[in-house]
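Here is one chain, start to finish.
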Amino acid sequence: MRSAVIESRDPLRYPERRQKFHFDFLNHTLKQAEWTFRLSVLFMTGGSLIILAGGVLALVHAGNPDLSYLPLVTSLTGALITVGGGALALHSKRTMANLTKAAEDNEKKIDIDHKLEIATTFIDRVADSKQRDDLNSAAAMKALGMDAAPEMMVNRLLPEQPKKEIEPGGSTN
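Its structure:
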């Protein structure tokens, strides 16, 4: 009763909801990876500029022993910021690799669905209802990942034709 009420209010069925959630999640992850990459570029650029500023400070204060620590601290700060940017870039790269794998997996699933749709279209053209039911059962088993040996499938789905023997002096027709 409760599930019927939920079904009537929500036009999307559970598979469509799962698919929508999955693609929303992938879109969110893609946006996150893009922003992480942008932040990494910003951090590495900022860190590089701070390192350059440390080099300039080293040249400007080369003769002053009281400020000899300033270029070193500035350069180390820039190096830490640049390393942080590199870590963000690495994280972004890993996320993009995971997204690429997910996209390839989705492409394979779409191909499998398309092949199943074509197979069921061909199965619907079979005139014999028992053979059509057997073929639909085999297609369902394949779709569910319950594959049988090809020899067994052929023996069960295609009835064995009696073998014709050639009589001596007879024709091959």
